[in-house]
Amino acid sequence: MEDLDNLKATELTLGLPGTDAPEKPSPASTTGANKRANEECCLPVAKKQVVGWPPLRSYRMNSIRIRKMDAEDNTGIYVKVGMDGAPYLRKVDLRVYTGYKELMEALNDMFKCFSLGGAEGHEESGYAITYEDKDGDWMLVGDVPWEMFISSCKRMRIMKGSEARGLSSST
Amino acid sequence: MTYFPEEVVEHIVDFLGSHRDRNAVSTVCKAWYQVERLSRRNVFVGNCYAIRPERVMARFPWMKSLGVKGKPHFADFNLVPYDWGGFAQPWIEAAARGCPGLEELRLKRMVVTDDDLELLARSFPSFKSLVLVSCEGFSTDGLAAIATYCRGLRELDLQENEVEDHGRQWLSCFPDSCTSLVSLNFACLKGEINTNALERLVARCPDLRSLKLNRAISVESLNRILARAPHLVDLGTGSMMVNHHTEAYHRLINAFLGCKSLRSLSGFWDASSCCLQAVYPVCVNLTALNLSYAPAIQGDDLIKLICLCFKLQKLWVLDCIGDKGLAAVASTCKDLQELRVFPSDIYGAGTTAVTEEGLVAISSGCSKLNSLLYFCYQMTNTALVTVAKNCPHFTRFRLCILDPGKPDPVTDQPLDEGFGAIVRSCKNLRRLSLSGLLTDKVFLYIGMHAEHLEMLSIAFAGDSDKGMVYVLNGCKNLRKLEIRDCPFGDDALLKDVTKYETMRSLWMSSCDVTLGGCRALAAKMPSLNVEIINESDEADEFQENLSDLHKVEKLYVYRTVARGRTDAPDFVWIL
């Protein structure tokens, strides 16, 4: 036992001295008869391997799986973003954002000289955020569901108010 | 008693609705048995293998409504092999011969073929209502037969079935003379639908109150439907994918404004947060809301929606609602009775999931809560004790901690005390599902306090046979016990074999029971079917060649008056 203590004391880690990761009790094995393993330190078992767990009907499991696969598609979607009057363009990875709000905030940061009132607020701010879609048309950002947008957006442009007003819906 | 004229007995018995009461009446004496059986209109068979269909038809010849359940509950989680059984055919055939006056049929977890549906459609001239829940084996061709031949059909309700898509024509098979539909639910269908036919059908059925569309129905079609059926009470919205600034979106807003009777909403498959405003006008009257298929609706937009639904009694959501969202539910939905929180990610991310805090918030805000299904990554004893104190009215309590065998993260203790508090406080608890790290103690508590418990689901819990014995000894009203991955073996199984005659069924998988134990049970109790489901390589072995020590992977025991069954596949051994 003493040897083990010394070993631990001289072990090289990146953490602060005295901090140890809490030992996790292992979830039960898949083979049935099992002891509660909280007296041992075990590696967490990958949850996926347990048949019929979590107790969810197939329909729900499938829709979770599909969404996970979509999310794991890790090829970033980099699109150019230009703004009227800016001397150079920027590039953003649309995969990084979960929705329009985050994207707007990021663009706001990047192009600090415009203030944004949300996807619909373009009329007040004088700027509109538009994008070129697969068909080559220039569309207003925010109309379609997010997933649809990121799969069809080729590049973005922040337009000045006078041009942009033509794009807004007449309500 | 013997002087009592039958007409009087019949009149009295007519007031009895529940199956339990009627079953009790029928055992009093032969005369009462006769009166009861001829006057029973609703028959419920909880296990299709407990009795042969012909006997049911012979006993209740004037039956109007029949409900039958097939596979055990764990079949929902793929623990029962595909062709295990639960066939609807013998039931429909027997009913066609013995009870042609049948009007309603409800099947759950059964295998139903297109031929079965066609036979059904042709055999019962007064047929009014078909409800299929978690069934499989049929296609849209079978639905076409129902639509074609069931004159006067009022209800076609398909809930979470596996239906093969053979084309969209089935809906066109409803004849122009069909104007009687009250409820139509095809939300589980994966394929396209003939929307013209659907819209015309809706237009000619003035009594339609419940309509649940599948994902293939576009918003444009939904708009047209809502325009023709503004009296809907219950709506499944279909896809709900709509662009914010379009004509379709504005028409959707108007459509919902016109739906003054809407009380229940579901669907929302592709709905995004930005189009939720369309449903705001109906929120104030909603009593039921199911957003559990809508992962895109979350965060502040979801909370904004919830805060309008102050009459909500039933809410199904995904765990991306978060603890913050649940707090909003707690402060808004004071009439909430049923809550289900499903996981949106099972791969351990857990960042947007709910925790014990959300559940505690719900319990303090929603004192009428009586039914809970809650998936989370962690739970504490303290939280469960608080929940038990705040909500003593639980009749159904199902907690699923996604990490099997996980202890209380704060104290590192098992959750025995927490669940113990639940069973002590909730005197009317009928259904309970356990999870997390649990020792034999929790079963001692359950045996001691859960007097009215009827269904118990256990996974990855317990230390020894004692756990199972506590439950079997203590829970006098236990009907269904399902166990997986627990260290319960032959001693527990055989401790009190007569108990199983008082129950509908017992399921044990990945436990410690052996073939010898099962053989002993079968020998002692001829009134039970003891089924071994053996899918491993050894399934090729004959049962006789395997020793008593062989561990049984899946055991299903149920009481029956029909010894054995003729439709069992090779891998099912009935001892």
From TrEMBL, chain A:
One of its GO terms (biological process) is regulation of DNA-templated transcription. This is Auxin-responsive protein. Belongs to the Aux/IAA family. Its main location: nucleus. It holds the Pfam family AUX_IAA. The lineage of its organism: Eukaryota, Viridiplantae, Streptophyta, Embryophyta, Tracheophyta. Gene3D superfamilies: Phosphatidylinositol 3-kinase Catalytic Subunit, Chain A, domain 1. Residues 1-36 are annotated as: Disordered. It comes from Musa acuminata subsp. malaccensis (Wild banana). Residues 76-161 form the PB1 domain. It is found in: Nucleus. Aux/IAA proteins are short-lived transcriptional factors that function as repressors of early auxin response genes at low auxin concentrations. Homodimers and heterodimers. GO terms for cellular component: nucleus.
UniProtKB/TrEMBL annotation, chain B:
Pathway: Protein modification; protein ubiquitination. The keyword Transferase does not apply. GO terms for cellular component: nucleus; SCF ubiquitin ligase complex. Pfam families: F-box_5 (PF18511), LRR_6 (PF13516), Transp_inhibit (PF18791). InterPro entries: COI1_F-box, F-box-like_dom_sf, Leu-rich_rpt, Leu-rich_rpt_Cys-con_subtyp, LRR_dom_sf, Transp_inhibit. One of its GO terms (biological process) is pollen maturation. GO terms for molecular function: auxin binding. CDD domains: F-box_AtTIR1-like. Residues 63-107 form the Transport inhibitor response domain. It is found in: Nucleus. Keywords: Auxin signaling pathway, Nucleus, Ubl conjugation pathway. Part of a SCF (SKP1-cullin-F-box) protein ligase complex. May interact with auxin and auxin-responsive proteins. This is (wild Malaysian banana) hypothetical protein. It comes from Musa acuminata subsp. malaccensis. The lineage of its organism: Eukaryota, Viridiplantae, Streptophyta, Embryophyta, Tracheophyta.
